[in-house]
Amino acid sequence: MGILGLLADIYALPNLKMNLKFDIEVLLKNLGVDVKDVKRVSLFKNRARELEGNPDFSNKDATSTKP
């Protein structure tokens, strides 16, 4: 369940591109799990991430680098 929790964390990241969210949804659906039922592990809570030039995030609000 740790990997599923990590996927739930990634799914909840703001400005994550829709195709990545869709891939996580499809994977969880194939496993018979709802993303709302997975306990998040909160590994990204205190970590800054590079949004500028990062292909995994949309550039809607690229000014905030902390979650």
Automatic annotation (TrEMBL):
<dbReference type="GO" id="GO:0030015">
    <property type="term" value="C:CCR4-NOT core complex"/>
</dbReference>
<dbReference type="GO" id="GO:0000932">
    <property type="term" value="C:P-body"/>
</dbReference>
<protein>
    <recommendedName>
        <fullName>CCR4-NOT transcription complex subunit 1 CAF1-binding domain-containing protein</fullName>
    </recommendedName>
</protein>
<dbReference type="GO" id="GO:0000288">
    <property type="term" value="P:nuclear-transcribed mRNA catabolic process, deadenylation-dependent decay"/>
</dbReference>
<dbReference type="GO" id="GO:0060090">
    <property type="term" value="F:molecular adaptor activity"/>
</dbReference>
<dbReference type="Pfam" id="PF16415">
    <property type="entry name" value="CNOT1_CAF1_bind"/>
</dbReference>
<dbReference type="InterPro" id="IPR040398">
    <property type="entry name" value="Not1"/>
</dbReference>
<feature type="domain" description="CCR4-NOT transcription complex subunit 1 CAF1-binding">
    <location>
        <begin position="1"/>
        <end position="50"/>
    </location>
</feature>
<dbReference type="InterPro" id="IPR032191">
    <property type="entry name" value="CNOT1_CAF1_bind"/>
</dbReference>
<dbReference type="GO" id="GO:0017148">
    <property type="term" value="P:negative regulation of translation"/>
</dbReference>
